[in-house]
Specification:
The complex is a heterodimer of chains A (about 230) and B (about 190). With about 230 residues, chain A is mainly α. Chain A is built from 11 helices and 2 strands, in the order ααααββααααααα. Chain B is mostly helical. Classes of the chains: A mainly alpha (about 230), B mainly alpha (about 190).
Amino acid sequence: MQSNPCEKWKPLLIASACGDLQRREEASLREHLQSCPSCARERACLEQILLAAREMPQPSQPPQAFWDHLPSRIVEKIQSTERPLQSFFLSHRALIAASVLFLACAALWGRQRNLKDKRIPSSSSKVQRVGNGVISSTLEERLAQLEEKQLDDIYSCLETEIPALMIPACDSLVHGEELQKNIYTCLPPEWDHFLHTAPSPFSWPSVLEYDVQNLSDTEREALINELNSFMT
Amino acid sequence: MDPEHGLVSAAQRGDLEAFSRLIQIHQERIYALAVRMTRNHHDAEDITQETFILAYRKLKGFRGKSSLGTWLHRIAVNLCLSRARKKRPSELDEEMIPRIPDRENRTRIEVQAQANQLKESLASAVAKLPPRQRMCFLLRTQENLKYREVSRLMKCKEGTAKALYHQALGNLRKDLSAYVEESHAI
């Protein structure tokens, strides 16, 4: 079967309609268009779509009353959700701080041991609590199965002051959704809202999707600040 | 001094009245983005509310490197994409999406009018795009943002934003072939 000779021009036609072609490519395409009515028509179709997109009818606007009441509705929600969260952190801040400190010590100690057996040091099995919740045995087992490189990643996160909860997040990057589920289920319900909503620009869902190791220095710094500010 | 700066500082200190004023300033733009993306008033309202609630919680970390509007936009983009990933296209608000009539059922008059209908049918086709393509396409065409701005909002590289935009246009072209080809044939 003979392939369409104009197929190769297709990406260029799209790029040209979007105004993204380099001058030389544009010139070459224009030359082709002069001798190819089919591509010329295609180019016009693409332009027509973009023109229509700019004039696309907007969804109908809500009535003025909606705008008048929205700020007060939002403020009410903030007030109603703020108190339980605040009280949770206030009542558990000592425990959270102790967990972070303990994890950091365990991490540094483990690193010094050079991890010959590529397993997490047994002492870190004492790390059982984060906030109000007990880390499940599943998570602990998975931590014990980590490779040296993966542990290093976690330690480097700790050394850059990413709080304790970042550990499961980093870990889930390595192990995928299954572990992520375990982490979610082992965290106290008070964390649920935080984990499933998006305190942008670095939401937890985004963090979980991110390859933390590939973050730029600026992004990493912002991430650390973001997480630290939440923890404090 | 920018009056918004004063409101931000007050809101950072926990002044909810100042934050309420900031909501008034930005709510329509955030809602507009959300409703374009979701084509659903209920979801758009939810996203608008969530955007401001999260913004309030994170406001202490806002250092004013970008404008508050951009920062809020970024939160809203995140929430829209997150929601779009969870939601199937069938859950879109049908009343807000103009229907494309069956090709066989279209009369000659309808065909003549289709150049105008294209704009409406486009909304339906855009709603079917994958979330990131849809977001990129809407930010480019509806918000007139440059690739650089789109990439910042979507946390991707400029090249990715460009590729998403091109893919979106290619997909729309396929979806709207009946419309654009026939309107050219008229």
